[in-house]
């Protein structure tokens, strides 16, 4: 009887310790359990392996040019610390004006690891708000400035080691979650090509004016 009681007590004690083991450690500080992401959830909630939170297509302008070539697209990593590309690289020459893709407020304008960076929190995109980042950019606005879609926030700096050629790295985050910045743009802006003048058909041409005296 005493042996059975000891076994039952040992089993209950083991279960109690298991509840505070790895699971509790993950809840308390493992990057994979919080906003920072984890296996199946890289870069934050909604990474590859989980459903990305919806991104409203609130953009109405490209950050550079009107339809710049994409040097490198969005490549979400398989794990929180895995290799990938957390943004989009757009080909552009140094000195090109960099514009806000949507209305918002400049939340950061400065240098990070020697590279100019501008971040804009987008208006009306929930809590936490969507935040776009642009680099390498020499900011022309200060933190706290309100911007409209298409407004210049800086100029593109000479290329860094990130791109083999001159490019703008454009990123998008919600909290600690990295998202595809191209998802901000509506389909008509993603597919719009150069404007062309087309012939007008079906409209009668005006009669030539009569010569004087006829």
UniProtKB/TrEMBL annotation:
Q: Which SUPFAM superfamilies match?
A: Duplicated hybrid motif (SSF51261)
Q: Where is the M23ase beta-sheet core domain?
A: 84-181
Identify the domain of life. Bacteria
**Stretches with biased composition (Gly residues):** 35-50
UniProt keyword Signal present: yes
Q: Which UniProt keywords apply?
A: Signal
Extract the signal peptide range. Answer: 1-28
Write out the ranges of the annotated region (Disordered).
35-69
> What Gene Ontology molecular-function terms does this entry list?
metalloendopeptidase activity
* Record's keyword annotation contains Signal: yes
One short Pfam name that applies is Peptidase_M23
Q: What's the protein here called?
A: M23 family metallopeptidase
């Amino acid at each position: 009887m005493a042996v059975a009681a000891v076994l039952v007590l040992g089993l209950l004690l083991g279960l109690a310790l298991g509840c505070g083991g790895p699971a509790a450690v993950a809840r308390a500080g493992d990057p994979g359990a919080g906003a920072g992401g984890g296996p199946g959830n890289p870069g934050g909630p909604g990474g590859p392996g989980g459903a990305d939170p919806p991104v409203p297509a609130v953009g109405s302008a490209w950050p550079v040019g009107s339809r710049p070539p994409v040097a490198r697209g969005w490549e979400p990593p398989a794990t929180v610390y895995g290799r990938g590309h957390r943004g989009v690289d757009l080909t552009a020459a140094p000195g090109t004006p960099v514009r806000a893709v949507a209305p918002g407020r400049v939340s950061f304008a400065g240098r990070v690891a020697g590279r100019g960076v501008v971040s804009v929190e987008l208006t009306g995109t929930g809590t936490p708000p969507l935040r776009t980042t642009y680099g390498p950019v020499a900011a022309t606005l200060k933190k706290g400035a309100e911007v409209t879609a298409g407004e210049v926030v800086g100029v593109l700096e000479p290329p860094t080691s990130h791109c083999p050629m001159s490019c703008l790295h454009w990123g998008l985050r919600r909290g600690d979650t990295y998202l595809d910045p191209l998802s901000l743009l509506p389909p008509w802006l993603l597919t719009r090509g150069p404007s062309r003048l087309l012939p007008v058909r079906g409209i009668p041409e005006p009669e030539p004016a009569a010569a004087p005296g006829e």
